[in-house]
Amino acid sequence: MFDLAIIGGGPAGTAAALEARRCGLRVAVWERDRLPRHKVCGEFISAEALPWLQQVVPRTLERGSVIRDAEFVCENGFTRGFDLPRPARGLSRYWLDRALWSAAAENSAEVHEGQSIRAVRKLGGSQSDGGWKLESADGHTEKAKALIVACGRWWALEGFSSPIHERKPAGAGKWVGIKAHFAGVAPRGSVEMYLFRGGYCGLAPIEDGEYNVCCLLRRRCLRDVGMQGIENLAAWLVQVSCHAALAGRLQGAMQVSPTVTTAPVLLVRRQPAQEGALLAGDASGFIDPFTGEGISIALHSGRLAARAIAASLSMGSGDEHGAEIYRQSLRQAVRRSYKMATLARGLLHGSPWVQGLAATPLPWFGRWLFRETRWREAPKDKAASFT
Ligand SMILES: Cc1cc2nc3c(=O)[nH]c(=O)nc-3n(C[C@H](O)[C@H](O)[C@H](O)COP(=O)(O)OP(=O)(O)OC[C@H]3O[C@@H](n4cnc5c(N)ncnc54)[C@H](O)[C@@H]3O)c2cc1C
Question: What is the average pLDDT across 121-128?
């Protein structure tokens, strides 16, 4: 029996695996995809994530571009920018996720790549600490004393309450994420956000002089324009956004990766623990992508969940104790970030007039908002004190 089973090999799952190994646990992690693979993401990695990534995947991190400021460009061309409090990085998920996965394997986590977990079952009933049984799509079964679900925003696990089975909140499924990589975009060293009626598009410099172009669009935009021609993302986006500055920026750019899309994008928070299993990263809640803090929250929450489990296993105190440590620490770390992101969402997705109004004081408002939407290290990480 493993001490810990982790479902999902994105940033949250691999960070949890690495932290669990550091705490001496016997850990196994399952990832449905084969890595590397392209994933819809702005690929902006905030400064809060960098110190730990520097420790575990220094060579991959080194390949990324340094990003020192942020720029917002409204539909009418009105532009405002601000310096980031600390430099961030632009690095593709193609390389980041693979590097984290390899690091987990090198640190003796048992890794199952290209294997989906189909069902989980709590052993001995819901009140018991008897552990978990997992069944993969190809019919293999494994047991573990504890479970972390790090499946991202949208998942289905038989025997475990999953988003696919939940009643969707009002307005759910309104958003679609789309991205591709481009060469030949003149380098600027900033993350650029182009705001328009149907959503926004982010440009971030990544490795090898390339740019990631990623947008979050209202589904109804797609209904109006259709998906035809989306494989040529720049031309398609120019048509959808009617944003002259974005069109200018993408002129002459050459697409070097396939267009990938994701839906539904639900901006929700969930209970971070269910039946003693812990939910980490997007599985526990999805913060608005414009904050650029999703990867950081995934890494931190994955590690926090692993520490909480290590603490409860070492004390023999039962999985509800680990769940309580995790719940409290996670709440302290992200509660404010979610609140502030919700506040900013109203401005960002408002009419062009509202967007312009919000962008005017951007140099100070942007810096403030950016700081307010970061992961907050709990003053006293209860889980850390046990490990
Ligand atoms: C449009 C958009 C732009 C974004 N831009 C940024 C940005 O610029 N910066 C930033 O920090 N964040 C950004 N984010 C958010 C960021 O992508 C996520 O917060 C981050 O990926 C969360 O990591 P995770 O490990 O929780 O989930 P994921 O990265 O989604 O990983 C979950 C993994 O679990 C696997 N999985 C799912 N079900 C199973 C199963 N049953 N068995 C086995 N494996 C399974 C999946 O294949 C997946 O690889 C953006 C998101 C979107 C949608």
Answer: 72
